[in-house]
Design a protein that fits this description.
Layout: H1 6-11, E1 18-21, E2 24-25, H2 35-42, H3 44-50, H4 55-58, E3 59-62, E4 65-68, H5 77-92, H6 102-116, H7 123-137, E5 142-145, E6 168-173, E7 176-187, E8 194-197, E9 212-217, E10 223-227, E11 250-261, E12 265-268, H8 271-310, H9 317-342, E13 345-346, E14 352-353, H10 356-381, H11 384-387, H12 391-395, H13 400-406, H14 415-429, H15 432-443, H16 448-461, H17 464-475
Parallel strand pairs: 1-10, 5-8
Antiparallel strand pairs: 1-2, 3-4, 6-7, 7-11, 8-9, 9-12, 10-11, 13-14
Bound molecules: flavin-adenine dinucleotide.
Length: 478
Amino acid sequence: MPLRTPAQYIASLRDGRDVWFRGEQVPDVTVHPVIGKAIKHAAIDYEMAESDAFKEIAVVSENNQTYSRYYKIPTSTEDLLLRSRLIEAATAQGDTLVLLIKEIGTDALFALLAVTARMEDPKYHRRVRAFYEYCRDNDLALATAQTDVKGDRVKRPSEQADPDLYLRVVKRRNDGVVVRGAKIHTSVAPNANEVIVLPTRAMGEREADWSIAFALPVSTPGLKLLTSPFGDGDIRAGERPISVRHKMMETLTVFDDVFVPNDRIFLDGDTRQAGALALTFVEYHRFTAVSYKLPLVDAIVGAAATIADYNGILGATHVREKLTALIGYAETLRALTEKAAERCTKKADGQVAPDPLMVNMAKSHFAHGYHTAVQHLQELAGGILVTGPGDEDWASEATRPYLEKYLVGRQGVPAEKRMRMLNFIRDLSASDYGAYQEVLAIHAEGSLEAEKLQIFRSYTENGSAGRVMELVRRMARL
Ligand SMILES: Cc1cc2nc3c(=O)[nH]c(=O)nc-3n(C[C@H](O)[C@H](O)[C@H](O)COP(=O)(O)OP(=O)(O)OC[C@H]3O[C@@H](n4cnc5c(N)ncnc54)[C@H](O)[C@@H]3O)c2cc1C
């Protein structure tokens, strides 16, 4: 089957889905002023598959089949690197700087394929495989709902005052199960075709009902999407060159006693595999994360160097120091991302996953350094990031001459050119979109502590801890 066009993707979202925005039900997400923007942003994935410039990397042709590269199950370092390059290109293309759509759900599919292949009961793997082929052949867009609302963070799912604070099975039928609960922060859910649901953590023996993974069309009865309006304000194109066009939407994804048919259940009651699934998903998903962050950190380095030049300070020692720190930050991220692919680990059926140690180090390096990188950028740009003029001031004959005269940079840098750069930096770092990027850096694809935990665990489990301890024992002649 051929890949879908952007128009076909957009039309597929008119399916009666139950979406809410600021307390009101949205009859058609595709024409909603805010959700519609997120849809156009996501449609870039579909545009890239059609464009001459990106077709080669965005589309895979094998065994008489043509499908999106996002659906290519990685079996080698090269597959992982090509996936990473596609994600990077998508995020840099049209200065999107956040994820589009196809990257997210395929990570969940790869995790489901890898984990179910090891399960004793083969029916789960068969179901995942059939679902994977259905999504791939129909070129679908998927959201992944993993994060539960969690209530008291220290208590386990079975210990919560309200058992629905982690999504769970409330009824079993011959033809499927009924689930209740809410997932949170679900990116791209209002503009996806299907939502894949995964457990968010390892489960204990008493937590069989919470050990559930499945997928459903977004229009399934009882599935309600309460969208976050963050960043929905009045945005002027000149002042906010990035966020005027680009947006991801997150939802509180409520499962109000939703029926899941048997063929869509991928894990049910297996408490041991619930944790394995949660962890395998993040191995893939953190690789996607660091891949889409590459254009973002490159943009910070480029913007810092450009505004330093425009302000005439490029030669100053402290400026060189800050730029050197930013270069190290960006290039370390790139190197760790590539290393994660290079050292990939084998899963079932020849499938590979990014090296957990390297990928968690990459994500942790990015997340820990992001605010400092923004600090350097803001410092070099100056306070005009939050005191500069608006689009109307440039349009007005009364005020424009003053802006042109007084807001210039070093000789040869006119005010308008300098202010365009500053508006780019302002949007990136000092707008609600900039704040979104900061919170995204810390929490999305797993929090700082989650990555630390995985770094320690992977280092211990891959034999590195034993190797270095043996080394010092030998050095100390113990
Ligand atoms: C923009 C954005 C997009 C996202 N997209 C998705 C998505 O598409 N799908 C999805 O499933 N998720 C998504 N996430 C969720 C993301 O993975 C979570 O935000 C992240 O895992 C942190 O969870 P939380 O937000 O519930 O914070 P919390 O877990 O509440 O963390 C808050 C603080 O509590 C600490 N803490 C938590 N538990 C404990 C404990 N037991 N003991 C001690 N300290 C604890 C944490 O370390 C942290 O310091 C997204 C998040 C963001 C911000």
